Amino acid sequence: MHTPLKSRSTPDVIAERRHDLDWLRVIAFGLLIVFHAAVAFVPGGIPMVINEESSPLFGPFVSFLSQFRLGLLFFVSGLGTYFALKSRDRSAFFGDRARRLLIPLVVGIFVIVPPMVFLEKRYIGAFDGSLMEFYLAIPASGIYPDGHLSWHHYWFVAYLFLHCVMAWPIFERLLYRPESRLHRWSAYLHQPYGIYWLILPLLLIELPLRPAFPGFRNLYADWASFFHWGLIFVVGFVFAQTPALLERAKDLRLMSLCIGTICSGLLFSFFWAPGDGFHPGAGEQEITVLSYVVFSFIRIANAWCWTMACLGFACRYLNVHSHALTFLNRAVYPMFCVHLTALVGLEFVVFPLDWPVAFKFLAICLGCLLICLVANEIAQRNKYVGAALGVVTPAKADR
Fold this sequence. Notes:
The protein is mainly α. It is built from 15 helices and 2 strands. The two termini are 42 Å apart.
């Protein structure tokens, strides 16, 4: 039986809370509101509530963020998982993960997501009944997008829980067995430019799996992304355990930014088509083995270097505590749970209005932020709502 990590001695571990990593987490999840609001102005996006008039700015913006935003979220989650394990043994850790991930997942699928899908189907004319009739039709309708049953953005919660379960043997060796082979492998990251070696294993996942599993977020057809994000999740854990790697990312932040910028430029120049995003056959060019390998390498290097750039700049400039950070760090998860339903509800109301695109975008972003803040306030004060939105111990109301 393992004792909590705080009673163990591990080499080179973080002794106190890192405010820069908290800020990175807040920013990474905060981008979801802006990103998902922008998706509604890009043809063919999901959710299916799409504004009739699009903007030429949103397509490149969505394509750019799509390359690394999810990897950044899983990396940040790996960082947070290390801190969650620092003071917990195995049973306490899995109990905490179950409460914070599985309970919100079930509530999300059956309570928070259905009204969003209902509004989607009403908007595109695929359903004309009431919300109650929609709920009753879910069991026989099938899986989204043809049917009504969906987990929408809660796929991230399901994936994260599976990553926690599958990565536990790795975490156990990293925490309790300093002589294990994993520590020798992780030593490669400590080389002068070792943090960029991660591009190679990520590429080895990408090349064989992506053609067979291009990736709709349903798990069984998404193994390329699942293992890609799983590796990044574990690497985030390793970085949190090793302050020297965080310092290395900080020192190399400008290099990461430059490489990421170059890779993004190459992707937009040779592999991007408006309305179709990035792929090796963009612009109706023939897909060859060479073009696929080159595209995959640039895409993986781009995603990883932008992740390292975000980490490096956060470590350099954001290691500052504030009351706003304390509030936002607690609010991030409840706001994640409700943000997409709030956005779709606002879009359902705003998009039929005769407003300019910029006004619509600003209105749904600010409106979503307000709804999320209200939902978080309720979650922090009510233990049942808090449990449903991932708040284990809601803060008591100020007196």
